[in-house]
Amino acid sequence: EWGGEAEVVQVSAVTGLGMDSLLEHIAYVTELKDLKANPKKPARGTVLEAKLSEGRGVLAHVLVQEGTLRRGDTLLCGRCICKVRAMHDDRGRTVQEAGPAVPVEITGFNTLPEAGDPFIAMKDANKAKEIAETRAHKMREAELVSKRHITLENFFQTTQATTGEIASLRVVLKADVKGSLEVLTKAIADLPSGEVKVRILHSGVGAITEGDVLLADASDAVLLAFHILPERKIRELADLKGVEIRTYQVIYNLTDDLKKSMEGMLVPEAREVVDGEARILQLFKISKIGTIAGCKVEKGVIKRNSKIRILRDGTQIHEGDLDSLKRVKDDAREVKEGFECGLKVRNFDDLKVDDILQAYRIEEVARKLETAPAG
How far is CA 270 from the centre of its chain? Predict the structure, then answer.
């Protein structure tokens, strides 16, 4: 309404408000921009929606956008193919063909297409089938590659994306006797659960069953077994499903593995480490380069990749990085205490004699589970 190339029409599907105006605007824009479709081309269009109907198979509502769709055409749509057996218009009447901008309901798809999938009519039905099978095969391979179950080792990598949320490690727990199971359940419940928590989906006494493996597979969980060794067929099923089975003989080892996995998910603590300090003794102004500070390292070491904080009369006036660090005339990786050097602070030339340059770095220190904030 306030300008631009897109027409604005106020409509309401509930009351029918503005429908006549909408049709007028569509006709106006079509005529103005000379929008036309070639009805003689092979049909192209888009699947609007699809559903399974008992007795009729897959029903797909499609919109023809180019060409003319005819009964008997072979369509290639994503990983699906369709031999059009019947077509009905928006009022349920049987039609033999549909031109550009005509929505129709068609039957004949071999599988359910996705809404939004484009389709194209093809003359060679065998070629369409071959392309659809190739696409389906590639999609299955991609799904298998992307489906990687949680293990205690990859828990950190696979849950890194959930920043800001409480990460949850799901487990299925089996033990040889009820007493051991109760102790294990209590030990896991006592683990700190601030930013990371362990969730027991199922616990039980006795041998590991196929149901345990299938539950771990469906819920992306780790299967932990205490004093139990899985049978060969169970291990084969777990390998097939990609489920990790961990066996333990000592309770401490089980809880220790869980703690290590949970600690890997804690956000590291950032600590500042001051490496050294240097005092500016002399300044050199060089055209096209800027101000070079001649300094003497009074404490520690100044490193080329250090961050720099500039202090004047005890007050910080700038914080940034080094552009260059030289010892005499040669580039240096670091200059130690007692030696002189020349350095250039990136994007900052307002330096004065006796300014203190403090070199520091930020270290990430791994946190222990006991230090995780609660709640």
Answer: 25
